[in-house]
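User: Okay, second chain of the day. Same drill as before: sequence in, C-alpha cells out.
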Amino acid sequence: MGRHILKSTPYDPQTHFQPVARVGEAPLVVLAANSMPANTLGELVIAARREPQRYSFAVSSLGAAGHLATIDFNRLAGVDISMVPYRGAAAALTDIAGNNVQLFIDAGVAAMQQVRAGRMKVLAIATTTRSPLAPEIPTAAESGLPGFEFKSWYGVWAPLQMPPAILAKLVDGLQRTMADEEVRRLLLALGTVPAFEGPKAFADFIARDVERNVALLRAVNFKPE
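Assistant: Same drill. C-alpha cells below.
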C-alpha cells in the first residue's frame, strides 16, 4: 500500500519481504459524538442521506484503515460525508469527545475506553460477527449496513530468500505462540483478536486487502503525497 499513499517509498511490502504469518486483528468501530441524534448505524445512514452536509468524519491518518473504512462507508451508504484529517487518533478522539466533529472510525482499546467513560458513543463494529473484544456492540450488518467490514491487522515478515527450514521453524513457533491461552488473554486485553495464517494464506490475504484498498483510493481520486 505504501506506494499508493506516498509518492516515494524505499520498498514495497508485497515484493521486498517474505510473509511469515498474520497474527492478530483489531476490528474498527464507528464512533459518534454524544450530540449526534443517531444511536445506530442505520439511523446515521438515514440522517446522512437526508443532510450529509451536517456531518463530518475525523480521519486519523490518510491511507490508514480508518480512512479506507470511511471511504467504504460513504460508498456503501450512498453518501458523501466530508472528512477532516487529523494527526493521529488521540486528537480525533479529543474532538469527538468535545463534539467538534461528529464521526470517527477507529480501532483499539483507547476508543472503547472513551465510549465506556461516556465521552462518546459507538454505533457499530465493522465485523461480520460480534467481536469478543466488545460483544455488546452490534455488527454493521445488524445495524443496517451489510458488507461493511474493516479491521487493522498485524503480521510478521522476514527477509526474502530466507532458508525454508528457518522459515518453517518461525511459522511453527508463531502458531504455537498464538494458540497459547495466556498470550491470547494478553492480546485481547490490548484490543487485539488473536489470529494465525501461515505464509501462503497471509500472502493471499495481503493481496486481497491491497486490491480492495487501492480500488477505494482510486474511487475517490486519492493522490499520493
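The CA atoms of residues 51 and 81 lie 9 Å apart.

User: Thanks, on to the next one.
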